[in-house]
Design goal:
TIM Barrel; about 40% helix; binds 3-methyl-2-oxobutanoic acid
């Protein structure tokens, strides 16, 4: 899959993050359907404790590498914190750079009501946009941590945001860390494909962070069951290397 318009309702696409050419090529070899160059690179690659310090230039740098490793693949680049919020012109310029300089086929925006006009301007300018609701990690300081969103009455706010996204014509909507029942309800209700990250099994596509899938991270998000055991394997190999060369 190369274009976000190929993300279809019920198609069960499997997406994953990647941040460099090496892993992007492995993602393609494994037959996955698309790549997000997430601002999670702040935590996974840059050693930050949140995604907040990630810049537009960082995303462009990593998107270029990913596109080199997976030239035929759908590559979605994340709009980092404060690249969309200040004003529509700056947001449009930043989104354009992710496409022109990074080579992304679409951009993803952590969505709150304030950024809807900027997202609409991107779509009107020919940039496919993916929305992102539920847990939006760029709002960690407002949310008071990385907690599940959309429980009880809070579900209404997520439904409203989703409706705004459908109305402006987004190509997909990431639902992150919301109750599975809400993931199912939204997926059944809207014509746009949903992309679940800890939003239950019924979303139209699933997305996960590469380092979590490979088991490289020391702690998995609460909604994820272990899949790979890369951390153990990597440390064992490093120990073996140390003993072999000493
Ligand atoms: O940055 C990222 O990796 C993300 C996904 C977890 C949705 O935004």
């Amino acid at each position: 899959m190369k274009y976000p318009s190929e993300l279809k309702k019920g198609a069960n696409a499997r997406l994953i993050t990647a941040y460099d050419a090496f892993f992007a090529a492995l993602v393609v070899e494994a037959g996955l359907d698309g790549i997000l160059v997430g601002d999670s690179l702040g935590n996974m690659v840059q050693g930050h404790t949140s995604t907040l310090p990630v810049t537009v230039d960082d995303i462009i740098y990593h998107t270029r590498m990913v596109v080199r490793g997976a030239p035929q693949c759908l590559v979605i680049a994340d709009m980092p914190f404060m690249s969309v919020e200040v004003n529509t012109d700056d947001a449009l310029r930043a989104a354009g750079r992710l496409v022109k300089e990074g080579g992304a086929t679409a951009v993803k925006v952590e969505t709150h009501f304030r950024v809807i006009p900027a997202m609409a301007a991107m779509i009107e300018s020919g940039i496919p946009v993916i929305g992102h609701v539920g847990l939006t990690p760029q709002w960690v300081n407002m949310l008071g941590g990385y907690r599940q969103q959309g429980r009880g009455m809070a579900a209404k706010g997520i439904h409203q945001l989703v409706d705004e996204l459908v109305a402006i014509g987004v190509s997909g909507i990431v639902l992150e860390h919301v109750p599975a029942a809400l993931g199912t309800e939204i997926t059944r209700r809207i014509p746009v494909p949903t992309i679940g990250v800890g939003a239950g099994p019924d979303c139209d596509a699933q997305l996960a962070v590469l380092h979590d899938v490979l088991g490289l991270t020391a702690k998995l998000p609460s909604f994820m069951s272990p899949i790979g055991d890369g951390r153990k394997g990597a440390i064992e190999a490093l120990h073996r290397y140390k003993s072999v060369v000493s």
